[in-house]
Amino acid sequence: GQSTHGRGHPPYRRRVQAEQIAEEFPVVAIDSDALAAARLLAEHRLPGIVVTDAAGKPYAVLPASQVVRFIVPGYVQDDPSLAGVLSETVADRSAEKLRGKTVRDVLPEHLRDVPAADADATVIEVAAMMARLHSPLIAVVKDGELHGVITASRLLAAALRV
Amino acid sequence: GQSTHGRGHPPYRRRVQAEQIAEEFPVVAIDSDALAAARLLAEHRLPGIVVTDAAGKPYAVLPASQVVRFIVPGYVQDDPSLAGVLSETVADRSAEKLRGKTVRDVLPEHLRDVPAADADATVIEVAAMMARLHSPLIAVVKDGELHGVITASRLLAAALRV
Fold this sequence. Notes:
Order of helices and strands of chain A: HEHEEHHHHEHEEH
Shape of chain A: elongated
Largest sheet of chain A: 3 strands, mixed
Number of helices of chain A: 8
Mean pLDDT of chain A: 83
Low-confidence stretches of chain A: 1-13
Helix content of chain A: 25-40%
Largest interface: A-B, 62 and 62 residues
Strand content of chain A: 15-25%
Oligomer: homodimer
Structural class of chain A: alpha/beta
């Protein structure tokens, strides 16, 4: 960013910028274990996870609602009415569906656009992007690298000064 | 539910049911203060909130990504490119947009379907609904009343036995 975008908050530029409210957040590599990614989300109660490519750059953002898709058999995704007639065996072995698979294997096609904001984006810009993309997380990118993540609740806390 | 759906888990019915993993969760009434609802979500880092009607029944589920819409001026929602040229004054006063408004006033039209599961739904049924509706929360309804809420991370924890 330019020098006027620094952390000094001079009185003539008081607006909050994305990089100031971005937080560190667990990320998973695209070729890492899908089961480990799902466990990470479950254990830390995350609203979603950032998936990075081999170079460590943001590749996708997986909302928690789409990570749960990992445990739904394909034929149930195609016909949800089948979920109710699954045997207990299938329902109880949902974790096995993930064994040996990578995040890349289970990443839905429609999520391969990264909801990413520049480091100097405003709270309103990030909010507008989040609402439009229905994403619980926005990746904040600075100089082409992942700088941090803004969750919806973090964004509201910043906007409402909670 | 029927007697075989009880909490005794006899060996011939081991599958986990929605009511067993549902949790208590903050809810907001449709005619309550929109600013208070946004603060609740921010303070507790919730993935979303359940909106109830005057009778206390589930009316809508608001994902956090849609609550952030509350602070985005209407003209920016219509034309996101305007977000970058907002004056600092507008950006810094985003909370004032909510003052005096109720949740009903700011509830997006497209969210008025409640992602709700029956108390005896399976983990796979809830997961399939969550993935299809892109909802971070599913309301669990028993005998017509809100019984609790299942978040995506809670569902994964149950499925993966984290």
